[in-house]
Amino acid sequence: MTPKTSEKICGMGHSMKRKEDPRFIRGQGHYIDDFERPGMLWMDIVRSPYAHANITSIDSDEAMKVPGVLAVITGETLAQYNLHWMPTLMSDTQMVLPTEKVMYQSQEVAAVIATSRYAAADGVDAVRVGYEPLPVVIDPFKALEPDAPVLRTDKEGKADNHIWHWEAGDRDATEKALADSDVVVEQDIYLPRIHVASIETCGCLADYDKTNNQLTVWMTTQAPHAIRTVIALVAGHVGLTEERIRVISPDIGGGFGGKVPVYPGYVIAIAASVVIGKPIKWIEDRMENLQADSFARDYHMTVQLGAKSDGTFQALRIKTLADHGYADAAANPSKFPAGMFSICTGSYDLPHAFAEVDAAYTNKPPGGVAYRCSFRVTEAVHAIERIVDVMADELGRDPAELRAQNFIDKDEFPYKSVLGWEYDSGDYHAALDKAKEIIGYDDLLEEQAEKRERGELMGIGISSFTEIVGAGPSEQFDILGIKMFDSAEIRVHPTGKAIARFGTKSQGQGHETTYAQIVAEELGIPAEHVQVEEGDTDTAPYGLGTYASRSTPTAGAAGAMAARKIRAKARKLAAHLLEVSEEDLEWEPGRFFVKGAPELGKTIQDIAFAAYTNHPRGMEAGLEAVDYYDPPNLTFPFGSYICVVDIDRGTGEVHVRRFVAVDDCGNIINPMIVDGQIHGGLTQGLAPSLFEQITYDEDGNISQGGSFIDYLVPTAMEVPSWETDKTVTPSPHHPLGAKGVGESATVGAPPAIANAVVDALSHLGVRHIDIPMTPDRVWKLLKEKGAAL
Amino acid sequence: MATHQIRVTINGEAHERTVDSRLLLVHWLRDDLRLTGTHIGCDTTHCGACTVLLDGKPIKSCTLLAVQADGHELRTVEGLEQNGQLHPVQEGFWEKHGLQCGFCTPGMMLTASALLERNPSPSEAEIRRAISGNLCRCTGYVNIVKAVQHAAEKMRST
How far does A529 lie from chain B, in Å, by closest CA? Predict the structure, then answer.
């Protein structure tokens, strides 16, 4: 796509170098742990070694003797202010600090306030806690058995560990269609518990000014405005009303959904600052981050797909058990406890589908966050893209061909899916064809056949995913009742430069650049002269934040709409300056000119100056606008990925030899940034496919994934050189035709890799492998099939 | 607690301090000297966000005591830019979109700069090996490799 604007204006389509980078490459970013306040104290947290235990005593006498320790805060302390429990974003409840029992290993038990980082840690070591262990429930299937111990004894009348049931589609019609299908395949698929593992952990600096009754909280949050409202709802009764709370989200060292929830540490630090009257900093360490912060995935799925003998898909049924830990602390839109799981029909024209999810409590950390995906889309995509390959295997068909046969055709958009979504636009055949061409699909099939003859294991895997992002339209989407619009406010200064503020919050996505480019596209003000700000609730307009690939679909759209409001006023000003009627003016990037007389015109800079120096009578001075954008629909980015793997028969190690990703995120704002988002997303798709998982033993001890020792974030040695390309199918309803791209690759990559590994082993009778496909898991399978060396 | 008098040259400037025995180098740099470009990402020497150069070699400052740096020369990210001129590695990271959230970037750039000092023409495999002690969660490393290659080219041509 050729950009409409010049290099100087640098609107959409230009690979502008990032505006935020000059500070980052100099080490001058301001992340949470870089902030300091006069008189600042430190907080550190005592955590439970048990997964389920009554607390019999908390003795802080020794801790209080440690030099520098000023206070030990317990659940009893917080209970005095009714702050020992808090709501989750899913209207469940979780403890801030316990007064009776702990529910998972590493749960917060008490907090120590001290004059230094080291003194606080010494204090934590000196707090003595008495525990009386209770029976532990780790397996979510066992949690739902009738004789399972009831975990949430705090909930009056709760007699089991079932949280909720959710379903979509017509159960009876789907079951009938499955019964009528010529071929039905079924597969159990588990997506394990993983963690976002952003390189910066979470933390905050809470500073309560008693004189003015004003609380300022710098915190690692992807949704500062919503957090301010939550704090006001939780602490309003102690006098902290919303106008007295300022939340500032500074530079964030990676978020990926893990910095959406409100963690107990934030609340304790805020409460401690209010009580003690001093600024208090809390920064979690890596082990706390991995062991206690919200996990992702942990979906146990049983997937059935029915087809005619010619391969035409007839029906999809998915039954899922979701392990939520001891509280449902996901951050989904209220009406969607299983998120957007009903996108599970994927890229295919399925006449019948039924999906259901039951959620269970276990003795694990609370959560279910949308880790770099739009609320359970990763789970849904894995289910459909895996089962399509199982069906291809059953029918003896080429997986690419079977996909193409069942794709929703480009002429069928907008397409109403059987589970109720209206897909905005797509051209799935084009993306798959392009991916096949780039990777040389037919040659690979030949190579594979030759290698099999020689006993070598090589596999080719495809994933043709469809996402659902940009939540969302206010009739359906809210979090705690707050509708999921987003916002932009643009002010054009007299000299024609601008400041633009947004309700979202970048965590590395490059909003300072891409939002400036949106304003440049619409107003012709060079992007280098558009200053973008986010994250300060005192200055930015209210918005729901950045997650679920929603920034471009919502706040980006708001930016375009606010700019258009400004342009409408600029037209009136230009007409006034040129003494013509508005209808006689035409717009080109950065300038209105008189139709038929292009030399007669006024630049946006001339117009901005006039808005403050020479505005007509009856018109308000100034040139600014606000827009709260309520999207008419979600957007549906898609793509086709093809992965080639080689497997070492001696070690079971999977080597990703090539990976081609063809993405379609609609119109592109900054191609360089889009590519970077896809590289990163692919890597976060590779990670759980091959390396990462968090596991527990039957006593609830974290057995893998509690630190970077065995939570295996891929290094440069494991990550292949991703090959990216694109097709462009604009969204018909987004003002810029954009769809959002941040999560496509995280969602799309795992099934491509899983399908490639299964393909490498399919001639041995392997039909499915759960991720992560670690060397030991693959080697055991090879051994079982007699193929291990 | 025992304390020690230490003298360390950081980014060409001599610093003398009395420090506790147990004070980690990274905390001395960040909390005392306020050189906050060096970040902390883990507790186990895996992530490399805290990488600094000790006598030209990349080390993880979360696993070294401040007292162990006594008598040595350190370079942190704040010392990469010289006389208002970005280091070629800094230019490379900006030019090639080698960073997103920026949190791993200082450590990654210091490791890369040390690589280029000892190997002016590294292969892609050598670059990947050199930075394998530095985790990046955002970029997928592809553009980091390009950034280092860009810097190598620039350094060779000047």
Answer: 19
CATH fold of B3-79, please? Ubiquitin-like (UB roll) (3.10.20)
Torsion angle in degrees (nearest 10) through CA of A213, A218, A221, A227: 0
Rg for chain A, CA atoms, rounded: 27
pLDDT at A234: 81
Quick one: closest CA in A to B23, which residue?
A118
Give tens-digit pLDDT for A76-88: 999 999 999 999 9
- Residue the block writes with tokens 């100087």: A8
Domain check: are A463 and A530 in the same one?
no
CA distances from B80 to A208, A690, A728, B35, B155 (A): 37, 36, 40, 13, 14
CA distance A358 to A344: 16
Residue closest to A378 by CA, chosen among A463, A459, A291, A261: A463
Distance CA A595, CA A585 (A): 6
The tokens describing A130, both together, are 């008495």
Residue A233 binned pLDDT confidence (cut-offs 50, 70, 90)? confident
Residue A507: name the closest of A743, A322, A277 by CA.
A743
One domain, residues A449 and A503: no
Considering the domain boundaries, does residue A656 fall inside one? yes
> Which residues between 53 and 72 in chain B have a beta carbon less than 8 angstroms from any beta carbon of chain A?
none
Q: What domain range includes position A50?
A: 32-137+220-239+256-280
**CA-derived radius of gyration, chain B:** 16
Instruction: Inform me whether the pLDDT recorded for A331 exceeds 80.
Output: yes
Whether residue A286 lies within 8 A of chain B, CB to CB, comes out as yes
Q: Is B21 on the interface with A (CB under 8 A)?
A: no
CATH architecture of B88-157: Orthogonal Bundle (1.10)
On whether both A119 and A265 belong to a single domain, the answer is: yes
Residue A618's pLDDT band (cuts 50, 70, 90): very high
What is the 8-class DSSP label of residue A542? P
Counting the structural domains of chain A, the total is: 3
- DSSP class of residue A115 equals S
Question: Is the same domain home to A441 and A506?
Answer: no
How many residues does this entry show for chain A? 789
In a domain, A450, yes or no: yes
Residue pLDDT, tens place only, A378-396: 999 999 999 999 999 999 9
Q: Which of A601, A629, A657 is the last residue of a domain?
A: A629
Q: Is the pLDDT of residue A27 over 80?
A: yes
Q: Do B132 and A716 touch (CB under 8 A)?
A: yes
Average confidence (pLDDT) over A438-458: 98
Q: Could you say which of A600, A629, A658 is where a domain stops?
A: A629
Do A785 and A769 sit in the same domain of this protein?
yes
Provide the percentage of residues in chain A whose pLDDT is more than 90: 98
pLDDT at residue A236 in the model: 81
Beta strands (DSSP E) in chain B are: 3-10, 13-20, 51-54, 57-60, 73-75
A692 falls in which pLDDT band (50, 70, 90)?
A: very high
> What's the complex ipTM?
0.99
- Mean predicted lDDT score pLDDT of chain B: 97
**CB neighbours of B134 closer than 8 A, spacing ≥ 6?**
A715, B47, B48, B49, B51, B104, B107, B108, B111
Give the pTM: 0.98
> A667 with A768, same domain?
yes
Q: What pLDDT, on a 0 to 100 scale, did the predictor assign at position A377?
A: 98
* B93 chain-A contacts, CB cut-off 8 A: 21, 25
Tens digit of pLDDT for each residue in A717-773?
A: 999 999 999 999 999 999 999 999 999 999 999 999 999 999 999 999 999 999 999
**Interface contact flag, A679 B142, Cβ < 8 Å:** yes
- In sequence order, what are the residues at sequence separation of 6 or more whose Cβ sits closer than 8 angstroms to the Cβ of residue A108? A45, A46, A47, A95, A96, A97, A98, A264, A265, A268, A292
The rounded distance, in Å, linking the Cα atoms of A415 and B138 is: 33
Whether residues A467 and A446 share a domain: the answer is yes
- The DSSP bridge partners found for residue B13 are B10
